[in-house]
Specification:
Helix content is 44%, strand content 13%. It is α/β, with parallel strands linked by helices and 709 residues long.
């Protein structure tokens, strides 16, 4: 045994050891804390804990801002909620902070994007700097307005000088000799007008000076006053010169007045010319960005998105949206505003950075406009008004064309003029396959020949089927696609069982109604996987291999129930869908698997998307609200995949592949993906039938050997 004495730590040694450990650990904690704070401030990372990921920028936005090559500045002009004196304190909503958080995400994750937060109530210096920046950046437009402001005083002085001289002459006329009623009326108009000119011109000048003293100067308001004053002056002088021209040769009128009218007519015409020329200059001016800023500074809240050459103003009602149909569906009767800031800002960036403005044209063979917005209580809008508005938000120019030419002959009162063939040759064609009514000249007009010509020349198109409508066979066959308007997807009717309180779930009992959640493997469909969508009714689309074409079938028809392709379309539309196996002499209904869409591309040429429903992108489908969220005052689409699939198709057709993703609004709803057959079999057979029993056996063997000793 060792005789080495045991050393016991003294109190002083223990104090040194444990004290040193405490100091070391404390220093380490301080260093790590400082490091974390520095890193957090440098990279500004935030953790999004919302279920739908609402605190993060959505994939479509990230695609846009990470590929952005132009400098973009976003300015927040929101005031803190405490400035809202009109709303009780306990009811005030903080509209400002979510906007600031969003803009910080744009700046941290985007390229060439800077932000500025301005309190419009307190930060007057920053407001002045913003005014100067807008003035300098978009000064070309302002210079044109300033030129009018610079010229108008000289024109007014000249008009006033001529009018004053004319008043002196008119006062010397013997009005007591006037007996003719028309002459008296014309002379009185001339006399009263010419006397009022100097005073009216002085009042206009004073009003203009007030506009220019505003901060920023209201150049647009000042020029509008110039235009109004000169236009009114020109109209009055036009009435006087017309009257003088008719009466100066009338022998019934005393000679002294005939002589005055003949001599004064050139003088009145000279004054009118000065007024008309100045009015014409004001009418040729474009929009004024500084005026947009001035309106934004006056408004309660707004966002300014500034590009290299253009600027977009986003008012508060576009960022915090309260849908009208949300009222009455909330527990307290107060609908909650939906935050749409990301969609609005991203759309503004897209429009400001696009080199060219892509065009989309809706093609129809007769009938009324498809995309024209309606006027509430006065005129019903087109069935594709909502999707057309979404296209415009993403900087597309939306056009319509009636290939029959009838609309050009009887132009709708409120419809814009239709484009020429030359204007739509480079546009993306949207072609709904609605059945055309027979014309007085013969059979229904066909879109197929024009569509074939467009595709053969390198164009692209989105074709949408409709039962018993046009099949566009000649146009689509070279692309390996066959649209079957003579076949609709159907499933066995669901009879019995408890009824659902969800109108959509209940509707799926009907044979022609399918709720879609799986859309196939293609760029335009992958991002919408798991989102609810609906095609009603749904035509079958078939594909075949074609040399030079890359053809992909999309939109698989769900097979959770017995499913088939119903060939008795008329009967199915009346609720009489029944599976017919057919005979050797007579083919029956189509057996699954079935598809309701196809995508085809030719290298170096155009692209084609064919979807088996023309109704899926209509307003009644896109605007159908989610009833559960609607009761909470949150209005979102029940079928978000419909709008996303349409937009993805158009982006892909216009070869903007980086834009093919999912928008911010679509992620406001939960996504429930369908379990694929392979995955389902893995869990059923691999895990439940094989995996679990093997695990139990393995555990038993392990326990047996461990208990041997």
């Amino acid at each position: 045994m060792s005789n080495t004495p045991v050393h016991y730590e003294t109190q002083h040694e223990r104090w040194l050891k444990y004290g040193a450990n405490v100091v070391l650990v404390s220093l380490l904690v301080i260093v790590l804390s400082v490091l974390l704070v520095v890193l957090a401030q440098k990279y500004n990372k935030r953790l999004d804990t919302t279920m739908a990921g609402l605190g993060n920028l959505k994939p479509q936005t990230l695609t846009v801002i990470q590929n952005n090559k132009s400098p973009i500045k976003i300015v927040c002009l929101y005031a803190p909620p405490e400035y809202d004196s009109e709303t009780p304190v306990d009811e005030r909503l903080d509209y400002r902070q979510p906007v600031i958080d969003l803009l910080e995400e744009y700046q941290s994750k985007g390229k060439n994007i800077t932000i500025e937060i301005i309190d419009p109530k307190l930060q007057e210096t920053k407001k002045d700097q913003l005014i100067d920046e807008v003035t300098n950046k978009y000064g070309g437009e302002i210079d044109k307005y300033k030129e009018i402001i610079k010229v108008y005083p000289g024109v007014y002085d000249e008009i006033s000088k001529l009018a004053t001289a004319e008043v002196a002459i008119v006062k010397g006329l013997p009005f007591d000799q006037v007996k003719e009623e028309n002459l008296a009326e014309t002379l009185n108009l001339a006399f009263i007008s010419i006397q009022a000119f100097p005073k009216a011109l002085q009042q206009t000048k004073e009003g203009i000076n007030k506009q220019l003293k505003q901060k920023p100067p209201d150049y647009k308001g000042a020029v509008n006053q110039v235009q109004s004053g000169t236009s009114n002056l020109g109209d009055m002088l036009g009435a006087i010169t017309d009257g003088f021209g008719k009466l100066k040769d009338d022998q019934k009128i005393p000679e002294v007045f005939r002589k005055y009218m003949a001599e004064s007519l050139p003088r009145y015409q000279a004054i009118k010319k000065l007024a008309d020329e100045l009015a014409d200059k004001t009418k040729k001016l474009g929009e004024l960005k500084l005026d947009d800023l001035r309106q934004s500074l006056k408004a309660r809240d707004s966002i300014i998105v500034m590009g290299e050459k253009e600027m977009k103003t986003i008012p508060v009602d576009k960022v915090w949206v309260v849908p009208e149909d949300a009222r009455g569906f909330t527990s307290e009767g107060k609908p909650k505003p939906r935050f749409a800031g990301e969609q609005q800002i991203t759309s503004a960036i897209v429009s400001l950075t696009a080199k060219t403005k892509p065009k989309v044209v809706f093609i129809r063979a007769g009938g009324g406009p498809l995309t024209m917005p309606g006027i509430r209580g006065f005129q019903r809008g087109g069935p594709f008004g909502m999707i057309a508005s979404r296209l415009r938000d993403y900087n597309f120019e939306v056009l319509e064309k009636d290939i029959t030419g009838m609309s050009a002959m009887r132009q709708q009162q409120f419809a814009p003029p239709e484009p020429s063939d030359e204007e739509i040759k480079d546009a993306i064609w949207i072609v709904p396959g609605f059945p055309s009514a027979p014309s007085q000249m013969g059979p229904p007009p066909s879109i197929a020949p024009r569509l074939k010509q467009h595709l053969d020349s390198g164009g692209s198109a989105l074709v949408m089927g409709y039962p018993q409508g046009e099949n566009f066979a000649d146009a689509l066959e070279p692309w390996g696609i066959k649209l079957r308007p003579d076949v609709v997807a159907a499933h066995e009717a669901v009879v019995g069982g408890p009824e659902s309180t969800d109108i959509v779930e209940q509707a799926q009992r009907e044979p022609l109604i399918f709720l879609l959640r799986s859309y196939g493997n293609h760029l335009i469909t992958r991002t919408v996987e798991g989102l609810d969508g609906i095609f009603v009714p749904m035509n079958i689309v078939e594909t075949s291999a074609k040399p030079g074409c890359t053809v992909t079938a999309v939109i698989p028809v769900p097979q959770s129930l017995k499913t088939w392709g119903e060939t008795d379309v008329a009967g199915a539309m009346e609720g009489k869908a029944h599976y017919d196996a057919g005979t050797a002499d007579k083919p029956g209904d189509l057996k699954p698997p079935l598809w309701a869409g196809a995508v085809s591309e030719k290298a170096g040429s155009g692209r084609v998307v064919v979807l088996g429903s023309a109704t899926f992108a209509m307003d009644n489908m896109l605007g159908f609200p989610d009833q559960n969220l609607r009761k909470q005052g949150i209005v979102v689409s029940r079928f978000p995949a419909n709008g996303e699939l349409f937009m993805n198709s158009v982006f892909w057709l216009s070869k903007q592949d980086t834009m093919v993703t999912i928008s911010a609004s679509a992620l406001e709803v939960n996504r429930v993906g369908e379990i694929r057959p392979g995955v389902l079999n893995f869990w059923r057979i691999g895990v439940l039938c094989i995996g679990l029993p093997l695990a139990v056996i393995a555990a038993g063997i392990w326990m047996f050997f461990n208990r041997q000793d």
